[in-house]
Amino acid sequence: MHRRRFIANVVAAAGPFTGAACAAAQGGARPAPAPGYGRLKPVADLRDGKVRLHLPDGFRYRSFSAAGEKFSDGTTVPGRHDGMAAFAGPKDSTILVRNHEVNGPVGAFGDESAAYDPAAGGGTSTLHVTRHGEVIRSGPSLNGTMMNCSGGPMPWRAWVSCEETVNGPDVGDDSSGGDNSRLTRGHGYLFEVPVDRAASARPIRSAGRFPHESAAFDPSTGALYLTEDNFSFPSGFYRYLPPKHPVQAGRLLDGGRLQMLAVKGRARADLSRGQPAGASYATAWVDIDDPDPAFTGRPSNEEAVQAVGRQGRAGGAAIFARLEGAVFHQGVVYFVSTQGGATAPGDTPPPGFGEGRGQVWAYETWSGRLRLVYESPRSSALDLPDNVTVSRRGTLVLCEDGDGDNYLRGLTRTGQIFDFCRLQPIPDDPGAEFAGSTFGPGGHTLYVNVQAKRGRSFAIWGPWERGLF
């Protein structure tokens, strides 16, 4: 390749966050707040006239497929709406594959004969909707799994759904999951859900048994990058190298190799704490020898949930605080450390591992370089980011999981952060949060979930061209 073309390709692959974005890290000069789309105001839901979201002028929305309602086949919509992806459907429709982060041995929804574990209540649903959130048809697509938190869309028209748990009959009970002895299968795996048919409910065991959160696919190499959300303990950033390129295979194959990210020259580098402005690290990968450990003697949940991560850290892998959302864009995997960073003056450290209010990291797949692109200076700027997606202009959309008001916030290519949407407080459900943000085909509609006691999905549309999405 000619030198000039090589340099141009490298610059393009570097992704949108450079220069000023790195200065947004804790301790550095910060860009001025981005103007975004303007002041947020209460907007009525086109479904029933109730105010559920606050949005800028010109934006509208409709909610749909709430927990407790019925799918097209007559079965009941489960709760805990979480990660989601959008795919092009026929006649300008959108196909959504949506996770349900249900914990405990509460029984499978939908057809129990198709369930991975008939005792487990999580899984995914697939919905065909219009650009304005009108449901054409819907139904279960994966059931009998557990704590399906997030995942990632795949270019062969599939969703990889991630279980954020290691519950099973071979593991002690967790603090909120109920009696694990009632489960029939081990959990903590990846499951592939095709867009056009029900899932096979076969776990990808070689991709690890740990509290998975998100999956981001690199089409140039076939690697699948994975985040770990270990609430009380350190988390790691992984990649799964399948035995055959998934695009060639037409699916994600089991039998590959799992690795965990390390910082070169710094064994067990603790990146969960506040970082200097422009923090950037050369990285390496540590092999995980036993990605699917066979638990004997029914160890405690606290022991089992660390079994894979401890292998990586024993080999020098880096430490993060609660890795959640991840998205691939232009050769870069952007991923979120929900509780990473330094504790700002006046802020109370959140419970669990990590004392900050959130970091956004970028891993350059083409160079192996890890960069910090944003670290929250205080909870009022960004409060515990969770799921993440990217707009056509390269702006990240961050779902918050904070203690007070929860927002959808934008993080621009130059490191500016702005408010786009605020969740109307739900009086009897202070823990309600945004999740599963994803742009539909063509960027006309932003689909997003609210995880709540009675969670629901939303379609949001309006004058995107007026701002930074």
UniProtKB/TrEMBL annotation:
Protein's UniProt name: Alkaline phosphatase PhoX
Signal peptide region: 1-23
Keyword match Ribosomal protein: no
Lineage summary: Bacteria, Bacillati, Actinomycetota, Actinomycetes, Streptosporangiales
InterPro entries assigned: PhoX
Pfam family, one: PhoX
Keywords: Signal
